[in-house]
Design a protein that fits this description.
about 375 residues, alpha/beta, TIM Barrel, 8-stranded parallel β-sheet, 12 strands, about 35% helix, disordered C terminus
Length: about 375
């Protein structure tokens, strides 16, 4: 078992804050991005302005975060080609991983090891959809796109590969396939953490619900299942509870603070006149209510605040949630953990039946086990 999974089996692991939001706080110029043609490509900063990325990583590690993510969320060749940087795909991802690795090793101690997660975001395509434009990509093309990115991240020394903000479950499968090919190619294996984004109805963009997500990811033998971003922590509560009641794998919860609103400071109405950003949750309420409640009640093992500009917010999240550790379970409803590959790291809420979404916005507790869960290998 990897050191990352060993630590995860013992206590909650806390990720860093959002890379993109923090980059925006620096108010970088086109020159910082390497020119007007590549302005806005955050991943290119690892080559053109690495000091910014290093400073962001350092800030979150000093705040107490256990894991920092590489600056590679849109670092696939498919996304980099939008800036005509596709030829630099390997170099950008390799450098992103090396920067994070160097900073993490500087802060790592035997008492608190620090880890690097290789961030892999979606392409923006929807291969499962009927849209003639968004579905105009093959499964094998997606596999190769993610294989290339994962190989560079592995070479750079990441501890875990993080698939995040996924909207199409078929693309998630292609990403996992690409990652496994990269692992064989690099002769190196690391855990796979797969996360999807759900809307307010508890479904992915194309309608896949949390039960189907869990069943698919468990069958694909990932190491961690989770949710991130989307509409904020409030709408994650029921899907997270479902995972805690049914999933045999560690759970990650990485919400943002909800959908940002453009607010006119004088009139306090939703408008675009000032461009000032307003969030549904403040840093205080974000750290103290959703995250702590999620850890304490639903046995999440990985947390991250996906929107924060402030290192102080990260410090508050670490302080609030560090005390929670793995709990012993006395009752397992629905799933026979003894038959699961992840039985050693299995935990569930005590005496709590699972919920299933019957229609958008409505959840109920069935009295019998789910047949699709009982077929878990």
């Amino acid at each position: 078992m990897s050191k990352f999974l060993e630590t995860l089996a013992q206590r909650v692991i806390i990720y860093d804050g959002a890379m993109g939001t923090n980059i925006q706080s620096y108010q970088l110029t086109a020159q910082d991005y390497g020119g007007e043609a590549t302005e806005g490509c955050n991943e290119y900063l690892v080559l053109t302005k690495p000091s910014v990325i290093e400073e962001i990583h350092t800030g979150f590690l000093e705040a107490g975060s256990d894991v920092i993510e590489t600056d590679s969320f849109t670092g696939s060749r498919f996304k980099l080609e939008e800036y005509r940087l596709g030829a630099l795909t390997h170099e950008i991802n390799l450098t992103a991983a090396q920067i994070a690795r160097r900073i993490a090793d500087r802060y790592s101690t035997p008492e608190q090891p620090r880890f690097v997660a290789g961030s892999i975001g979606p392409t923006g395509m929807l291969p499962s959809s009927d849209d003639p434009l968004l579905s105009n990509i093959t499964y094998q093309q997606l596999v190769e796109i993610f294989r290339e990115q994962a190989a560079a991240l592995l070479q750079g020394g990441v501890d875990v590969l993080l698939i995040e903000t996924s909207q199409d479950i078929l693309e998630v499968r292609a990403t996992i396939t690409g990652i496994r090919r990269a692992m064989r190619e690099m002769a190196r294996t690391v855990p796979i953490q797969a996360q999807v984004s759900l809307d307010t109805s508890g479904r992915m963009l194309l309608g896949t619900d949390i039960a189907a997500v869990m069943t698919t990811l468990v069958a694909l033998q990932v190491d961690i299942v989770g949710l991130n971003c989307s509409t904020g922590p409030e709408h994650m509560r029921e899907p997270v509870r479902f995972l805690s009641d049914n999933c045999p794998l560690p759970i990650s919860t990485i919400p943002n603070a909800g959908i940002p609103l453009n607010v006119n400071v004088q009139s306090q109405i939703i408008t675009c006149t000032t461009g000032a950003m307003n969030w549904a949750l403040t840093p205080v309420s974000y750290c103290h209510l959703p995250l702590a409640a999620s850890v304490q009640r639903h046995y999440n093992k990985i947390l991250r605040h996906c929107w924060s500009e402030s290192v102080s917010t990260a410090r508050a999240a670490v302080k609030r949630n560090r005390r929670y550790s793995r709990r012993t379970t006395t009752h397992c409803s629905v799933l026979d953990a003894s038959r699961s590959k992840g039985a050693r790291m299995f935990w569930m809420c005590v005496s709590r039946l699972p919920s299933v979404q019957t229609k958008p916005g409505r959840w109920q507790r069935p009295s019998k086990s789910f047949p699709w869960v009982s077929r878990h290998p």
